Amino acid sequence: MGIVSGSALDEGSIWKLTPQEGGELAARWWKWALSAPDDRSPVKDETGEFADWKQPEDVWFLAGTYGGRVVRRCQIPAQQPVFFPAFNTQRGGLIAPAPMLVDIAKAEVFLNGLPLPLQEFTSKPFRVGLYRHVAWGLWCGLQPLPAGQYVLEIKAQTTGGFWVDTNYHLTAADS
After folding, report:
1. Nearest to residue 141, comparing CAs of 50, 10, 15?
2. Segment holding 10, helix H or strand E
3. 3-state secondary structure of 120
4. What's the rounded Cα separation, in Å, for the pair 40 and 38?
5. What is the rounded CA–CA span in Å between residue 102 and residue 161?
6. pLDDT, tens digit, for every residue of 142-175?
7. 45 close to 140: Cβ distance less than 8 angstroms
8. Which residues, at least 6 apart from 109, have a Cβ–Cβ distance to it below 8 Å?
9. Number of other CB atoms surrounding residue 65 within 10 Å
10. Buried b (16+ CB within 10 A) or exposed e, 85-96
11. Gap between the Cα atoms of 97 and 1, Å rounded
C-alpha cells in the first residue's frame, strides 16, 4: 500500500465544523488526552505506540505534543473522521476559567504535502475530575480517509518561541 496521491484528496476530505461542533470536539479531545496515565499518554508518546488509547467510536483523535519534534507511526480506521490540534491549550480550575489564548506566529498542517485549513475553536466549560476546564486551539478535521498511507505534518510556533513539529505516518485501514 503506497502513499495516497494528492489527487485522491480534495475539498471533500475536509471536515467542515461549526464553532459549536468544533468546541465540543475540542472538549472531548482534552477529556480523552487527560484520561491517559502518563505511561500511556498519546500526547507524551514519541512513537505512536499509544495512538489508539481509548479512542471513541465516532471520531479518531490524533494527539498533539507538549512541544518539540515528534515522529509517530500509527494505524487509523479508514471509516472514521479524524480530529487533531495544530496548537491547543486548556485551563482548569474550581470555577470555569477563561480560555488560555496564545499568540500564534505560525501554524500549518499538510497531508501528503497538501495544505489543510485550520479552524479556531473554544470549548464551553467541561469537567475533568473536580475541575472545570476550557479548551482553545487551532484544529483540523478530516472526513474518513480512503484506505492507504498518509504523511501528516503539523507545525506551529507561538510569538513567545514555543513550537511543535509533529509528523504522523498514518496507515488508514478498513476494519
Report:
1. 15
2. none
3. strand
4. 5
5. 11
6. 999 999 999 999 999 999 999 999 999 999 999 7
7. no
8. 86, 115, 116, 118, 140, 152, 153, 154, 155
9. 21
10. bbbbebbbeeee
11. 47
